[in-house]
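Bumping my old thread because nobody answered last time. Still need a sequence for this structure:
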């Protein structure tokens, strides 16, 4: 995969071969300069998907912050875009990022929405996320955070935490005054909400965020998060 986009896409995975295959197919039409997939374990299926899409496969310890930072350090393109494997991308995502960076934006993300058929509760939750961000609340990784590579490294990158790894970085990026929410929707997979219940999942996420804001340790919060997951879902967020 090569182009003049100047954007490296970093994708952390842990056993997400099927989702990764679909995401890489979406990316191929947009021609990123680099695609770096960072697996949290040795995974022949993920490696085979990467080989099939001619992108780079890297292994790191199973910690999303560490995986994201490992991918960022392998990248040479001037802009980094961090994407979850189960994301549904805007068709012009790379072009929109590139245009924003040319206009002076150093970092940002996309608007939040849910995948699948529209429902009132999906619309409501998306509107609440948008309101939270407008009021200064946190932007999380499922909105496709991007940053100029030099700015990312200057600010210390992602924290090597098992949960809320993006919070420190996003806070520092927003403090520079050049962080923007781009006018396109990146759609988030609904399986966690459908599995756990829409209200239960939403309240649990907000409870963890509150505990973190009050000084909770990411390791302890990650253990609480994993308690809600079925066996084998330790890395799912």
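Sorry it took so long. Here it is:
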């Amino acid at each position: 995969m090569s182009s003049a986009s100047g954007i490296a896409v970093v994708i952390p995975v842990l056993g997400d071969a099927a989702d990764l295959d679909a995401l890489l197919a979406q990316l191929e039409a947009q021609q990123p300069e680099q695609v770096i997939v960072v697996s949290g374990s040795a995974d022949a299926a993920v490696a085979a998907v990467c080989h099939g899409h001619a992108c780079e496969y890297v292994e790191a310890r199973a910690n999303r912050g560490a995986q994201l930072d490992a991918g960022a350090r392998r990248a040479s393109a001037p802009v980094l875009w961090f994407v979850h494997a189960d994301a549904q991308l805007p068709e012009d995502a790379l072009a929109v990022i590139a245009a924003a960076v040319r206009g002076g934006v150093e970092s940002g993300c996309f608007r939040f929405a849910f995948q699948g058929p529209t429902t009132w509760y999906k619309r409501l939750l998306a509107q609440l996320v948008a309101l939270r961000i407008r009021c200064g609340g946190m932007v999380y990784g499922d909105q496709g955070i991007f940053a100029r590579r030099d700015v990312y490294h200057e600010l210390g990158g992602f924290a090597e935490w098992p949960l809320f790894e993006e919070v420190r970085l996003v806070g520092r990026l927003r403090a520079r005054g050049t962080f923007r929410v781009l006018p396109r929707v990146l759609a988030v997979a609904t399986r966690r909400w459908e599995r756990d219940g829409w209200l239960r999942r939403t309240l649990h996420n907000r409870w963890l965020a509150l505990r973190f804001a009050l000084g909770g340790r990411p390791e302890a919060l990650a253990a609480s998060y994993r308690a809600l997951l079925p066996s084998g879902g330790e890395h799912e967020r």
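The CA atoms of residues 1 and 31 lie 6 Å apart. Let me know if any region looks off to you.
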